[in-house]
Amino acid sequence: MPTSMRPAENKGDLIIIGGGASGLAAACIAMQRGKRVLLLEARDRVGKKLLATGNGRCNLMNMGAPVYFGHPRFALEVLRHCPREEVLRFFDALGLTTVAEGDLLYPASMQAAAVLDVLRLPLADSPRVRMVTGAEAVDIRREASGFSVRCANGDSYMAPAVIAAAGGPAQPRLSGSDSLFPVLEALGHRLIAPRPALTGLVTQKGDVRGLKGMRLPARCTLTDSAGRPVAATEGEVLFADDGVSGVCVMQLSRDAGALLERGEKPRLYLDLSPLLGLMPRRMRRVPQGELSPPGENRAAVLAWLTQRARHLPAERLLTGALPRLLHDRLRGLSPADTAALLAAFPLDVIGLRGFDHAQVAAGGIDPADVDPATMQSRLVPGLYLTGELLDVDGDCGGHNLLFAWAGGLLAGRHAAG
Asked: pLDDT class for 6, splitting at 50, 70, 90?
């Protein structure tokens, strides 16, 4: 049964569908402008996914160069109309203190709950806001007096304007759902089929056999069927019994998914030179201009092995340099073969981990029919679309949350008039 913070009242000035980052930001802006807000959340509480972001620390936004996919120009237009500085002023006014770690901005407490509290508590205390949980919207209809939103439990709500901020299908255990996509399609919006993004890669099991549990610094290069490099990242790779993950791997999942959809056979090469001190350990997406074929450090690795062989016996050549699991995997190989694998350890990619493991989804509602200055639908005046519903997804590191905040603030501002 739905629960609410206010007495039963199903009419308002604005209905917001979804109590995630974008919906909460929009609700705060509309409340501040004196509007009566009905916030409908399908789950038992708002902000469940927000609490899990950044491993519970909530990477609020990225202060560096924006990295978006799907419809990146649309994302940049949204950020032009609501730049980072405006998002920061919004949170500062709510009382949130923040701290930067490089380009990443966190709450100073390093607790995602602090972010949710500054959003949720003012809404809960306001007599103009009614938050309704257990209210999954299944129909939106335009009527003479505005909009009617019907929920799965049979309850209906009415308002002159609606903000759709229900998110996408990623992380269904928290709040992810694709249930609003058919509703928006019925109103004329085009859906670009969603697929997991920012998720782990499934590989041939033999490629990772015996390596489960390892965390290795590496440069990761994804290639197509012809062996051409498509994208590359640097960071820490996590090994499982069916594949690999870690932020640097997740950043390649969108490209890997596109290759698989085209029927190609992508391969991931791990340059493990950072283990040997031959490459800096860092986290980054490698610019397209720096892409190079896998194995470019092979000569340097072989020289490293040759140098060690001058004072170490062959059976201890890798001892003290490599984790035992990797050491055991390479034992007995010639120096040339060892160098080849350490410079370009190959993993055949056969799939992506599903929406349960994905941070976001690629795909969603085509934003071509959404005004980036207001987030209002060009097809249905009075309807606003924001957040993960749209075909915009960004890299790890706060890009997706920044887009959600900015879109929510724009939608809340313009829907409130």
From this structure: very low
In CATH, what number does 3-195+363-416 get? Answer: 3.50.50.60
What Cα–Cα distance (Å) separates residue 404 from each residue in 21, 97, 214, 387, 394? 6, 19, 34, 4, 11
CA-based end-to-end distance of the chain: 33
Rounded mean pLDDT of 338-364? 96
Q: Of 212, 249, 253, whose CA–CA distance to 354 is shortest? A: 253
What's the mean pLDDT in 268-275?
A: 97
List the chain domain ranges: 3-195+363-416, 201-352
Specify the pLDDT at position 3. Answer: 41
Q: Which residues touch 308 (CB under 8 Å, ≥6 apart)?
A: 317, 321
CB 373 within 8 A of CB 76: no
The overall pTM is greater than 0.85:
yes
305 close to 322: Cβ distance less than 8 angstroms: no
Segments in 173-216 forming alpha helices (H): 181-186, 205-208
Q: Phi and psi of 378, rounded to 5°?
A: -80, -15
Name the H helices within 40-176.
48-52, 72-81, 84-94, 112-125
In this prediction, residue 168 carries a pLDDT of 95
Crossing angle of the two packed helices 112-125 and 21-32, in degrees rounded to 10:
40
- Round to whole Å and give the CA distance between 168 and 181: 8
Query: What is the pLDDT averaged over residues 243-272?
Result: 96
- The per-residue pLDDT for 145 is 85
Identity of the residue numbered 292? S
